[in-house]
Design goal:
Length: 240
């Protein structure tokens, strides 16, 4: 990974990001002060609501405070000011995945001085610590054949489309209405793009399936199409 900074951020942007990271750390620190050991789910949810975080993010704020003392956060802030780098909460969450303190410090210095984006953070974590550290959970299985990959993509698009449809059913209208407007709009835009992708992949799959048909089946289908006044299937994309 190149160590040449890609770009610099404004002083105002850097300062704003530092304040947000400090606040995230303070939230975790305050929670640890009240519940220093294992925290119950009920207590975690209560604290998350007060801090306007999800329970999962509240748990990560606590981990941040465990791994980074106030001096460590100040050191991060100084690095960010030195290299005009905007350190986001996402960057911090990536750093929390590195267990060894010395490795974490080396990684954060290299990342900040080189102005790594979030995607570069992720790529480097994969290279150095394996995919489980970068993405979390089980590694996705990618089929070897093109048709199988297209089917996998179509299936994932379908899951999102059906989820979005279910979200806007009358019984879920109250839940849907509580989503932040920006988030709801982003979801809507993403699902619309996924529907277009699902349509495109479906067309490709139909074309691929057609190519695999025995010649005699293709000829028979063409005869049927001709009788109905349709164009030949070789010149069209079918929906079965």
């Amino acid at each position: 990974m190149s160590k040449t900074p890609q770009h610099k951020h404004s002083t105002a942007d850097v300062s704003k990001a530092i304040r947000e990271v400090r606040q995230f750390h303070k939230t975790g620190h305050d929670s640890l002060r009240v519940e220093p050991g294992q925290i119950s789910n009920a207590a975690l949810v209560d604290e998350a609501i007060q801090a306007k975080l999800t329970p999962d993010m509240m748990r990560k704020a606590r981990r941040f405070a465990k791994l980074y003392g106030r001096d460590d956060v100040t050191r991060l802030a100084d690095l960010c000011r030195k290299y005009d780098f905007v350190l986001t909460r996402v960057h911090v969450l990536f750093l929390l995945r590195i267990r060894v303190k010395e490795d974490r410090r080396k990684f954060e210095r290299e990342a900040i001085s080189s102005h790594w984006s979030v995607s570069q953070f992720n790529e480097e974590l994969v290279k150095r610590y394996g995919s489980r550290w970068a993405g979390g959970g089980r590694k996705p299985k990618i089929p070897s054949g093109t048709t199988a990959v297209l089917s996998q993509v179509e299936s994932m698009c379908s899951v999102w489309r059906r989820w979005h449809t279910e979200l806007h059913q009358p019984k879920n209208s109250k839940t849907a209405s509580k989503l932040p407007k920006k988030v709801a709009q982003k979801i809507k835009d993403a699902v619309e793009q996924l529907i277009e992708l699902e349509d495109l992949v479906g067309r490709e799959l139909n074309t691929e399936n057609f190519r695999r048909m025995p010649r005699r089946v293709v000829e028979r289908l063409n005869e049927l199409d001709k009788a109905r006044g349709r164009r030949k299937r070789e010149d069209s994309i079918l929906y079965w």
